[in-house]
Amino acid sequence: MTAFLAFLNAFAIWFYIGGVVAVLFGIKMLLDARRAARTTLFTLEQEQASDRAFRAVLVMAGATLLIAGVAGINAFVTPAVPPPETDVIEPTAVPFTPPVILPTATRQPTLTPPPPTPGPTARPTAAPRPTTGAQPTAPQQPQPTPTAPTEATTVEPTAPSQFAYPAPSLNTPPNGDSIGSNNIQFRWGMDPFGNQAVPVHLPPDQFYRVLVTFTSRSKNAAAAIAVCTHESSVDKRSGLDVADTRSDSLNSDYKWNVVIVQAASQAACLSGDFTPLSPQSETFTFRLP
């Protein structure tokens, strides 16, 4: 059923064009039949013209019913059908404790003093012969050259990170996906290995701030939709509906990203009065054909 509705939604314009062509063809058949009925004098040819006129009316009625049926299904049935659930098995939510990052003490390098510089070796001199009235003089020892002390190098400790959470990883819709349903669900937080990297539920003073941007046709400028939530997913029922902007978005192209913030209330989060608790996630794109 979902595949049939998606097929009708994707190829609705071709059904409309085919229906209009069939109606025009039926009108031509009807005019030809009426013209033939007026110009002929034979009863058999008049009956054939009546049959062609009846078939023309059937063709126009069938084409009209086709156009009305496709338009009614896209307008009333498709929005009422819930989006299909993904087959991803969500792991049991585990309370997330933000890591406490402490500065790491850096050990001071131990300096080895340089070896002492050897002084010049005194060569012994021959003792002079004693003379009458003269005292022998002792040879002078050379003084060692003093070595200047080396100053110790001080290494500053590394500053801790300013964020309490890592950047959320985006999951659904995937990057560059083309979505045919209006009920889009945004999910994030699961890493490529299926682990929950950020909390499923945030405390009351912390929010996931989801930002969806697009180019507005009417304003010829960038436009944005912001939503603040405590959960790691959001959809039309929980406050994020992009279907209203579908006709105003240029080429129906959208971008979205998520950041964890701390704010006094949801209104403060939406107005931009918040403190970021994580880096901004990478930006994904999607399209509503």
In short:
The chain is of the alpha+beta class and 289 residues long. It has helices at 2-10, 12-39, 43-77, 266-271; strands spanning 170-172, 177-178, 186-188, 206-216, 221-229, 233-234, 253-262, 275-276, 284-287.
Topology at a glance:
Blueprint: H1 2-10, H2 12-39, H3 43-77, E1 170-172, E2 177-178, E3 186-188, E4 206-216, E5 221-229, E6 233-234, E7 253-262, H4 266-271, E8 275-276, E9 284-287
Parallel strand pairs: 2-9
Antiparallel strand pairs: 1-3, 3-6, 4-5, 4-7, 7-8, 7-9
Helix pairs in contact: 2-3
Tell me about this structure:
Among the domains are: 2-80; 170-287, Immunoglobulin-like, CATH 2.60.40. A hairpin with a 4-residue loop joins strand 4 and strand 5. With 289 residues, the protein is an alpha+beta fold. 27% of the residues lie in helices and 16% in strands. Strands 2, 4, 5, 7, 8 and 9 form a 6-stranded mixed beta sheet that branches. Strands 1-3-6 form a 3-stranded antiparallel beta sheet, with no helix packed on it. Mean pLDDT is 79; it is low at 131-136. It contains 4 helices and 9 strands; from the N terminus they run H-H-H-E-E-E-E-E-E-E-H-E-E. Helix 2 (12-39) packs antiparallel against helix 3 (43-77).
What characteristics describe this protein?
single chain; 289 residues; Immunoglobulin-like; 3-stranded antiparallel β-sheet; 16% strand
Main sheet overview: 6 strands, mixed
Percent strand equals: 15-25%
Q: What is the CATH topology assignment of the domain at 170-287?
A: Immunoglobulin-like
Q: Unreliable runs, pLDDT <50, ≥5 residues? A: 131-136
Mean pLDDT: 79
Overall geometry comes to: rod-shaped
Percentage of residues assigned to helices: 25-40%
Distance between the termini: 19 Å
The CATH first-level class of the domain at 170-287 comes to Mainly Beta
Total of DSSP H or I helical runs spanning 4+ residues: 4
